[in-house]
């Protein structure tokens, strides 16, 4: 049941505004990528990347916004659990798309076979693990063992993409090594939250730099577009 006489506090309102602002930013960016891509596959991929991120995150951010404004109840808790599962899957797909964005950003460079294999295999393994009902997405307890496993595998995916952007360096003067910093920040914010937020709620504040890092990745694409 929803808490009686619930009144959102200032941190709740700020969270709702931040989450809504992020979703709006990502949606507008996706539209811009598609409108101004002019058939360029690189920017079409950026549009797909942004929609994947925005769409997946919306499944858990919209319930968070509702919870911040109206309070929690069993329905919201279930929506949050399912939303976290969906966003965990779409974030994995995000890094697969980011690998191909690298390819279209630097068409003269080749993705090493071993790196492509590592990214694809780790991503598929993580998605499969995320589908297990034993994750207990909709409970307060979750499943720490599976959480550690799926996020360790996710870190491998991220490392694979990081290696790509490190090897391309400053090719064409794009300064895409910034992507390495953004990915590291996103993982630095995301992993502690997924592992410890249920027992230490304040760790959830790390989602702010994580979200800002994803916005930075989108902004890099917009910079190339314009």
What's the number of extended β-strand segments? Answer: 0
Mean pLDDT: 91
Question: From N to C, what is the helix and strand string?
Answer: HHHHHHH
**How far apart are the first and last residues' alpha carbons, in Å?**
49 Å
Shape, principal axes of CA atoms: globular
Low-pLDDT windows of residues: none
Residues in helix, %: over 70%
Sketch the major β-sheet.
none
Beta-strand residue fraction? under 5%
Separate helix tally: 7
* Computed CA radius of gyration, to the nearest angstrom: 18 Å
The secondary-structure class comes to mainly alpha
What does this structure look like?
The chain has 226 residues and is mostly helical. The protein contains 7 helices and no strands. The longest helix is centred in the middle third of the chain and has 32 residues, at 74-105. The protein is globular. The model has no long low-confidence stretch (mean pLDDT 91).
